[in-house]
Fold these 3 entries.
Entry 1:
Amino acid sequence: MSNIVKDLRKLEVWFVTGSQHLYGEETLKQVAAHAQEIAQHFDQDKSIPVSVVYKPIVKTPEEILRVCREANQAANCIGIIAWMHTFSPGKMWIGGLKILTRPLLQLHTQFNRDIPWATIDMDFMNLNQSAHGDREFGHILTRMRIPRKVVVGFWQSADVKLRIATWLRAAAGWHDWQGARYARFGDNMRQVSVTDGDKVSAEADLGYSVNGYGIGDLVAVINQIGESSVETLVQEYEDLYTLSAAIRKGGDRHSSLREAAKIELGMTQFLVEGGFNGFTDTFEDLHGLSQLPGLPSQRMMARGLGFGAEGDWKTAALVRAMKVMASGLPGGNSFMEDYTYHFDPANPLVLGAHMLEICPSIANGKPSCEIHPLGIGGKSDPVRLVFNAGAGSALNASLVDLGNRFRLIVNEVNAVEPPHPLPKLPVARALWKPLPDMLTGCAAWIYAGGAHHTCYSQNLSTECLQDFAEMARLECVMIDARTDLNTFRNTLRLGEVVYG
């Protein structure tokens, strides 16, 4: 089956350069030539994940308004990189900035890296005015309260391009949310607060819709799946995973594997035909399904769909956005849950897992496909992939509804290999150490109201999620190596004041 996450190179960021008519046609020709060279350099650099499109330099309020309006209407445009080569008066930008709905990055650079000490003259100074031209642009952005990212440095440096690429990945995730659809099969787990929330506010503020669909509607599609399609998918399972003896062909539980394949095919058809970016289910509402769709959920996440268990639509949307942001990067992103602790003072750890649904994109090695009792849900034993996540730097992110706003909470962690085998724990799992330490990290998470469901990422940075939160106008709190609990709590109190 093909990967559902789109190729980021099909998306565009527009490179828009500001100037004015004050300096004469010859200077403007040089401004345009320099801007084209920078845009082309970015577009050809493999570290930049989307296409960079040069736009003619803007010199008047009318030209600025036009390019902003066109960016809003361009289906594949996910943002604008703006650079003031010369001095571009801020009042010229007011009309365009008022209507701009695309994310904005202000690139504070200049065409030349060095001052040409022996030859510098006033012609050079008139042409290369970014040092104060970008300050004028920055002032009008700040005065108009326009969210944006500022990247400073020489445009050819690796650090500048890395920060631009990080922002572009965040912009791709935000773009994917606009008009996205998420399906809920059943409601959220009864009496649980954090998986619930305001779906109307999410659609109004964040751009995606969440709607419920009856399990019967899904089952009707599953029941139409043919045996030949099931056989083909079972063969794919055999090629990709190490199947336990019971579910191999000829095994006494092979029919359960075929049933999981049938559920996966039906769910995939339902979601793809409906244009959904992700989904939720719940073990409390499985009428018509023979088993909780563990393996199907794991595999659909691996293909790029968002997922949240127990009706957790906010996490499903976040998982999808983070998968889009990370497209093409090594490592993976997965639905995750903080499950249990290891409080050894010498080696404190968090064990992350779930009943079934952890994405194999984070697996360290070839997953094992197994069948075991579940103990809840009242259905047949479900098939699932069992594996350990790899070691290394990672993070957990949680999107929660606080009533008057959504808050994004991010905790940097260090993932480790299990110190001992886990022969009787037949689920996918990850082990990590929260930063700055176990006690501070867990306390900060709880003070912030973070959920027990998260998106666990092996390949995204906190900077990327901060950029994403800025675009989405989300409150964002970070828990990392520098976190001090008293300062962190004061940050949360300040958030209450800011958001009223």
Entry 2:
Amino acid sequence: MIMLHFYDTLCETCVINDIKRHSIKNIELYACVSVGIYNFTMSARNNPKLWGGRFTKEIDPDFHDLNASIKLDKRLYAEDIEGSIAYANALCKAGFLTEEEVHLIENGFEKILAEWRNNLFVITHQDEDIHSANERRLSELIGDVAKKLHTGRSRNDQTITDTRLYLRKSIDKLHLSINIFIKTLIDRAEKDNDVIMPGYTHMQRAQPIKWSHWLLSYAWYAKADLERLQEIRKRVNVLPLGSGAIAGNPFEIDRQFLAANLGFEDISSNSMYAVSDRDFVAEFLFWSSLTMIHLSRLAEDLIIYNSNEFDFVQFSDDFSTGSSLMPQKRNPDLMEIIRGKSGTLLGKCMGFMTTLKGIPSTYNKDLQEDKEALFSTFDTLNNIFFIMEKALKSLKINKEKCSDALTTDMLSTDLAYYLVKKGLPFREAHHLAGKVVNFAESESLSLCEVPLEKLQKICQIFEKDVECIWDFRKSIEQYNVIGGTSTLAVRQQIDSLKHWLRESNI
């Protein structure tokens, strides 16, 4: 009876409901749960919500868990502290904090930053998000001065500022990763510049090309990706802080001062737009999806070239797996994972775009979904660039297999070019070369095995010098135009990419 009286005295209705819902029958366990909820309730009273003044009841515990974003956005601890220190200095400049108070705030945040970095920061149940967690801890360290920090600031402009700071840093990290990736492609292109292989269209052998020419095609994709990323960075690097919740800041906060302190190049011009804008997140997610598609296509090519049917390349054991059943298997799982992740990232982009589509103007809690998509996308993409770069360095090229895959029917275009150089219009030359191909197929001959006499029956312009075109290396070297596959043109590509990297200060 004493224990039951204890329940009645200490437990809220939600405790009783929780006990009933989980069918807790053990009396001691019942008491422990009750005390736990009681402690939570008392903690809530001692550390009220940032928004709790107008409420008379505590938030439902289950709704609290759903509403809280601390598990995700704790990742923004450094950005939140950086923005808060800058805002404290702006408040001081506006006359709402003294220099001593700013110094106190800065020292407090230095301790909090150290706690986060050393995994010593204790997240309480009342910490809804990184903003309330840092502010709560600051209050514990420096007292009531911490309560002045939020003057004129809303979590609406605080969270978007943190997100922009985080994404700016993430873009710079990706910039470096893609830079290294491009350099790896260039290095491999230089190293394997003597390898000739079939080039494919429609997955059919088309024309002979240099291996390096194929590899550099993905370096040009990566260059375009990097240029697009830098354009996105410009739109990310716009300061929203000072926008308040929706209407702006009434305390004459110097936003130019804030922008300079936080390294922003521009300042948002409309407070409603500033707190609701997540276009830069959507743009980054789309960019990531497109970039992953390029990596997926590279992975797909390598998966095909790695197969026994092609055998052009072989992955190192470091980047291959085996079969739990078939001992002979060497599976290109890394490339398959990259190919699969491209679909996952595209899904993140489409999911967040759908979220944006369904909300009205200014800040809505739906926008909290930006963090999961943003964080997981960055982690995936940055990790893939890092691993792909290592895999490419260790990739083995089977030069002989590449050469063996070359067949003279791939020189049928050269046969047409031969006739063009003799004075025939290309369309006529193309038609006649097709007749030669048809004859060779009907007789089960290689194109180079078609007798001169038969060639001359098809077109009298053919002469003995036609034999000169059955040389794959000579065929490649004729494509000297900028962007071609000749040794000179490939060298120009390499030099051009290196120059771009230097000039871009990447």
Entry 3:
Amino acid sequence: MSKITLAAATLALAVTFAPQAMAQDAAAGEKAFRACAACHTVEAGKNKAGPHLAGVVGRKAAAVEGFSYSKALQESGLTWDEATLDKWLADPKGTVPGNKMVYAGQKNEQTRKDLIAYLASK
């Protein structure tokens, strides 16, 4: 098999199975979100101890109306893109010192990626 044929076959497989891989990540993220569900929901407009996370990817930090955010998060200037969410999920207190979230952080990188994939689907 030539290098060009092999590259084309590899690309075809990647395109064919990419949606399934994303679904697996989001499914794993949904399971991981169970730990977050004590304080958060993905139902728009429904806040718990933490703000709802529906539509969080791409949203400005401290932007959910009706939720009382810490001054630190209000003044952070963050937008919740994938890189910022990854950093936040790994170390909320280190990312925005003085925030009110009582979560120590998720050290497992794959779990963070899965959570972000799940949140991006909401």
